[in-house]
Amino acid sequence: VQAPRGGCSHSTRPPVVTPSLPAAVFLAGILAALPDRNVSPVAGAIFVHELKREHFQGAFPSIRKNYSEIPSDTPITFHAQLLGYPDLPRWLRYTQRGPYRTGYLYGSPTMKDVGRQLIEVTAYNRHTYETVRQRVIFTIVPAPDTQMPYQAEFFVKNRDVEEVLPTDAQKQFQQALDIMLEQKDWSIINITSALDRGGRVPLPIEGRKEGVYIKVGSRRPFSDCLLETKSFDNQFRCSLDQQPVITCYDSFSPQFRVDWCNITLVDLSSLSVTERMPVWGDGVLEDDSEYNPPTDSPEKAFLSDYLLTILLPLLVALLLCLLLAYIMYCRREGVHKRDLKTSE
Ligand SMILES: *[C@@H]1O[C@H](CO)[C@@H](O)[C@H](O)[C@H]1NC(C)=O
Ligand SMILES: *[C@@H]1O[C@H](CO)[C@@H](O)[C@H](O)[C@H]1NC(C)=O
């Protein structure tokens, strides 16, 4: 029995299904599940959950049976969704560079998301089309201290989003930031792929990356060094495609190539609490309320429309019909019976 193969098989290896027990494998495939995982993201900080291939690989029924020879090259892709819903919650995103790479669930929950969310992760073995499920229980907790009013967003040109999501890469970025700004209280709030901001997939040239936006926040004001990037001189340089001049040492390079022209500084400290709240327009429904369509729509007379769309074309058709009839019966040209008789 050949297992079904989809359009995206990545190798010509035969599938690892045992021919004798396809039904059993199928059944086991449906039931295969890993024990639940508990994670607790903090509101207002970046959260990353790695979907490790090795973790799911051993749980595929066909591989579990002959455990001694785990193929290291099983292509695995993932699908994640909020339990009972087709997609992920708004704050959470999923990414995987390819079936041989680690998948990531990442995002930055807000205070509105605080609570429990059940995410179901399904891993697909692209060789055998077996699946393994795992439930990840997200317990989103509020941030221990007050929010960070000083926020800066950096654009890192030489990294893809998957390359900054692992903890080590985040630490590296944070250390560079601490050294450069000589402050220790910056933390990463959000990470966004440039592709989510209208960026493009670069040409497949060595070293070209999509880029990633990293947003950091702090309770202490921006250092002069960061503010310098927004100075008039530097803005002018940037408009001429030149590097801005900053007095402190760029400790990010060479690992992270930060675009010093593309820095967003947000200072929320001067805003009062009410100003920070978004102001909803009148078109937004309250939670759990229903939309009541207006009942008193004005009466409208459709007679003239009717006459125009139905009767006018009919009238024209009738006229044409009469004209044609007149031409066919009264104005017929050709040989008459009488003429035929006389010619005989
Ligand atoms: C994080 O970034 C994403 C994508 O840009 C955005 O939709 C989301 O609102 C951000 N979250 C926070 C808490 O800033
Ligand atoms: C920042 O980068 C984005 C994407 O590359 C670009 O669209 C935007 O114009 C840049 N902003 C500045 C100020 O250079």
Give an overview in words:
This protein is of the alpha+beta class. It folds into two domains: 23-140, Immunoglobulin-like, CATH 2.60.40; 150-272, no CATH class. It contains ten helices and eleven strands. It has helices at residues 22-31, 53-57, 61-65, 161-164, 167-181, 224-228, 232-239, 273-276, 303-330, 337-343; strands at 33-39, 47-51, 76-82, 92-96, 103-107, 115-125, 131-140, 150-156, 187-193, 212-218, 264-267. The strands form three sheets. Strands 1-7-6-3 form a four-stranded mixed beta sheet. Bound molecules: 2-acetamido-2-deoxy-beta-D-glucopyranose (NAG) (2 copies). One 2-acetamido-2-deoxy-beta-D-glucopyranose binds at residues 155, 199, 261-262. The site of one 2-acetamido-2-deoxy-beta-D-glucopyranose (NAG) has 6 residues, from strand 9.
Q: What keywords describe this structure?
A:
11 strands; four-stranded antiparallel β-sheet; binds 2-acetamido-2-deoxy-beta-D-glucopyranose; 26% helix; 344 residues; cytoskeleton; membrane; single chain; 10 helices; cytoplasm; 22% strand; Immunoglobulin-like; alpha+beta; glycoprotein; 2 domains; four-stranded mixed β-sheet
